[in-house]
Amino acid sequence: DKTRDLYTSWAANSELRKYFANNLTYEGFSLWWITKLCNKDNTAFNKWYYRLKSYLFENEYVKYNASLSILIIFLKLFKNFSRDIIFTIIIKIFSFTRFKKINRTNCFYSIENDLTKPNNICYDRIYSTAPLKHKKNKNFHLVNIDNGKEFFINFFSYQRKFKSMGIPHFVANEFINLPEIINIHIKTLKCFFKLVFYLNSKKNIFKIKNKDCKNILEPLLLSSFSGDIQTSLINALSIKNFLTKQKVRLFISYIEFNPKSRSVYYFVRKANKFIKIISYQHSYCNKNVLPYYHRANEFTSNSELEGKYYSPSPDHYLVQGRQ
């Protein structure tokens, strides 16, 4: 797929990557790594990708109304800011795992939608019963509530699941406070304005195959600031706040390089640089699924250099298959 290779190479070598590393960061973490351009999601949200392909190879023109796009971004930003504040208040009222004390070293990071209870024991369907069988007394779950609306609609069902988990669990979303959320939104908003001014001063920054793809890629980039970037930082900071209070040695997950994953890796290391991060392939993937397709120059073997110009990554990434 020519579009796949052209876009992946452009994203890895774009001058935007350097600009973000030097100018648009949060606690030393470049926001580039959690933008929609870098996430390259061509599966769940693939409209942009087919537009890019049509423009590159079929010369299909795409209209772009910058003023309307920015207005929509601000409306979504206000909605998502309100959502973040309300959700945090409610989760702290109804969930109290932040008051529990444990002394366990192996953290299994889970998403609430992956919890299943086929019998009397609840476990993460991705890990299956592995945390319950091997070194059980050292293991625990750190659960992130990814879909707050669905979680509260089925609140009592999730509470029953939590009570029947065979090992201790914590809800990651409890470990962030309102000032931190407000700070994230304020700082990312400042970064948004800096980016807009920068883009207005540059030409050909979105050029691929000698074609200016600005009308497709610029609105995709800017829309990252309407909620995706803030959510990624909130999730990652919650995990960091939790880990700073624990003596964790292993952080195990299946988030791979999916959206929101890189900020998690960065802030896990910021909480404790001695934690070993292990991620593993949890489903079928290949190089046509762009979140899993990268260039070597995006990474470094020195974890201390990760976060700005180089992508954060796990210490060990367990995969299967030739690709």
Give a description of the structure.
This protein is α/β, with parallel strands linked by helices and 323 residues long. The protein has twelve helices and twelve strands. The longest helix has 29 residues.
Query: What pattern of helices and strands is seen along the backbone?
Result: HHEEHHHEEEHEHHEHEEHHEHEE
Share of helix, binned? 40-55%
Q: Which word captures the global form?
A: globular
Given the structure, what is the number of helices?
12
The pLDDT mean sits at 94
Q: How much strand content do the residues show?
A: 5-15%
Number of strands: 12
* Main pleated-sheet profile: 6 strands, parallel
Strands of the widest sheet, in order across it, are: 7-6-3-10-11-12
Oligomeric grouping of the chains: single chain
**What's the N-to-C terminus distance?**
15 Å
C-alpha Rg (nearest Å):
20 Å
Poorly predicted spans: none
SS-derived structural category? alpha/beta
